[in-house]
Amino acid sequence: MSGLEQNLLFAVVGLTMVTSLVIVVVQMVRRRRDDEDDRNPWDDLEPK
After folding, report:
1. How confident is the model at residue 32, as a pLDDT?
2. Under DSSP, is residue 5 helix (H, G, I), strand (E, B) or coil?
């Protein structure tokens, strides 16, 4: 495998991982916003 093919493979794999991570984060934020409209996102950081 040449260097160009290896760089292309790394670019495709990295882009796929970043895209899937972004999709998961967006779904989590959207779900939290639907569940708790009256709460702030940083309320989860404070102890109960």
Report:
1. 79
2. helix
